[in-house]
């Protein structure tokens, strides 16, 4: 059921608000206050901080229902989810010096000392070697799959944290040829995150 209203100042009217008929015995100001209290109740329940979603509805009742639905829904924090999703792709800069060789290939296991930055599981490592033409050549070794300090697994190692060094297991990807200590790199090379 609907009604068509023709009047002045309709720009200020809110669709879906109550329509009251003023009779000869009614107080017009009291009825205006009653209508305005509905609107103020709605406006007080709306978060106007500027963060979140913008809500628009055709009627006041629809708007109230939509706001209540959004208030009771458990909407996840999208920014936090994006940050967690992109975390595995983040590579922290790191420079390591090889101090011991435990396994030469498949997987490479070396003892290293972190000289700069932060070493983390999942960090791709490479060495930089001079090529026969004199240019620098980056030789990818693989990603760190595990780390241990004094036979205890660790997730993150910072510069100066490992007094005697950290054992690092480096596993190459299946589509690359395996790297071998002594052929592709040696203990004089520094390991770089890439």
UniProtKB/TrEMBL annotation:
The keyword GTP-binding applies. It comes from the Eukaryota. It comes from Olpidium bornovanus. It holds the Pfam family GTP_EFTU_D4. GO terms for cellular component: mitochondrion. Keywords: GTP-binding, Nucleotide-binding. Gene3D superfamilies: Translation factors (2.40.30.10), Translation initiation factor IF- 2, domain 3 (3.40.50.10050). The lineage of its organism: Eukaryota, Fungi, Fungi incertae sedis, Olpidiomycota, Olpidiomycotina. Residues 101-192 form the Elongation factor Tu-type domain. This is Elongation factor Tu-type domain-containing protein. InterPro entries: EFTU-type (IPR029459), TIF_IF2 (IPR015760), TIF_IF2_dom3_sf (IPR036925), Transl_B-barrel_sf (IPR009000). GO terms for molecular function: GTP binding; translation initiation factor activity.
């Amino acid at each position: 059921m609907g009604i068509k209203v023709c009047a002045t100042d309709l720009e200020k009217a809110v669709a879906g608000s109550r329509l009251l008929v003023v009779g000869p015995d009614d107080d017009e100001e009291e009825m205006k206050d009653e209508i305005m209290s509905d609107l103020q109740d709605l406006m007080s329940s709306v978060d106007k901080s500027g963060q979140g979603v913008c809500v628009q509805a055709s009627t006041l009742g629809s708007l109230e229902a939509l706001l209540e639905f959004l208030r009771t829904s458990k909407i996840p924090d999208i920014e936090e989810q994006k940050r967690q999703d992109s975390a595995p792709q983040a590579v922290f800069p790191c420079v390591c010096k090889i101090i011991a060789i435990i396994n030469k290939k498949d997987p490479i296991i070396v003892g290293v000392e972190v000289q700069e930055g932060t070493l983390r599981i999942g960090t791709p490592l490479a060495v930089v070697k001079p090529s026969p033409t004199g240019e620098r050549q980056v030789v990818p070794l693989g990603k760190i799959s595990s780390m241990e300090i004094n036979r205890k697994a660790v997730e993150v190692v910072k510069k100066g944290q490992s007094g005697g060094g950290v054992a690092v297991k480096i596993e190459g990807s299946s589509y690359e040829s395996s790297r071998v200590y002594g052929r592709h790199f040696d203990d004089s090379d520094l390991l770089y995150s890439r």
